[in-house]
Amino acid sequence: MDLFPVVTIDLTDPKLVPEKPFYKRTRAALQSLEKFNVIINWEAHEESVCPSSVAKFFFDIGYKVKLCAPKFQSHIVYSVNTPTLDEATVEESDVVDFVEWLGMVCLDGHFSEDLNAYANQYTTPEPNVALGQVRTLQWRGFFHSHQIMKLIDYVREFNQNQDKLWSAVYVQGFSDAPVIEAKEEQSYYTNGDNGNICIFKKSHCWFCKFRRCAKQYK
């Protein structure tokens, strides 16, 4: 499990101008690389600018361009019990249990409230309350941090305004995403084992971070 080699090039560096040694070394290093694909997420600064303008720019200078749309899917879990988070008495273990339960919901796992149920069934942690349904919305794609923050803000406001029991947002990197947070690289081809989750309940928020083990496997 190797880490991505993360390289940062500051395009505003005053030394990064044609004919200067730093520019020449940088260009030579980039030209020495083999052919590779690049994923770009670009947000226009003005609504009047078409988001696909960046695709046209690279196409016009000779690059092959493919527009990639996010994939969306949704499912509903009916008649399920949800763990409760009491703002006054909640402990770290309660949040961990809730996140584990939420993972089962996202996977559309099989729930059973029978403590003697078969081993592959999942029992909701105590204390819990009955819910009519839980809806999961899932987007797969390459998203900018600004877009993720907009979603988090929307979900937080939705939870408060609609008086929902809770709402949550889970963000996880994918295999070819170099980082999910500044200077925290993904492990190559392990499906993005770095993740973040925000759980909203009225005016309260619990934020959880999942980070890969620092151990390197040979």
Automatic annotation (TrEMBL):
Any one Gene Ontology molecular-function term assigned to this protein's record: ribonuclease MRP activity
Protein's GO biological process: endonucleolytic cleavage in ITS1 to separate SSU-rRNA from 5.8S rRNA and LSU-rRNA from tricistronic rRNA transcript (SSU-rRNA, 5.8S rRNA, LSU-rRNA); tRNA 5'-leader removal
CC per GO annotation: multimeric ribonuclease P complex; ribonuclease MRP complex
Record's protein name: Uncharacterized protein
Taxonomic lineage of the native organism: Eukaryota, Metazoa, Ecdysozoa, Arthropoda, Hexapoda
